[in-house]
Amino acid sequence: MSDKFFFKGRRTPKPAYGESGYNTKRAAKLGTAASPLQLTVQDEARKAEVQAMVDEQQLVATITVDSQLEENIKALTGLLNKPKTTTFEAKPNRNDPCPCGSGAKYKKCCGA
Question: How far apart are CA 49 and CA 62, in angstroms?
Fold first, then answer.
């Protein structure tokens, strides 16, 4: 409905395109070419292991070898151990056959 029916005076301006709709300022996903993972390891052997994990997951990472610093691969382990969404099996409807195998309707057998 238009504002002109409710009061006389200035009309409410419509919002600009940039203020609504698409999010144009979203952060780049970690582990891509735009935002590579920054990992630190202590020796070359460990670098090869971490590089194998990165390649297996098809991620992009910058791995630095420095024996003076402690190992920092928290960003990689966070991406690898992402929690899974829990899903539940759908409860049968009242008139469906009972899943226990009795052959009766669910409402007469286990749904009561």
Answer: 14
Looking at residues 58-67, what average pLDDT do you find? 93
- Total number of residues shown for the chain: 112
Candidates 35, 42, 33, 79; CA nearest to 63 is 42
Query: Do 42 and 71 contact (CB within 8 A), yes or no?
Result: yes
| Contacts with 43 (C-beta within 8 Å, 6 or more apart), sequence order | 65, 67
- Quickly list H helices, the chain: 44-56, 74-80
Provide the token pair at 80: 């690898």
Distance, in Å, from the CA atom of 77 to the CA atom of 27, rounded to the nearest integer, reads 20
- Write down the pTM of the prediction: 0.54
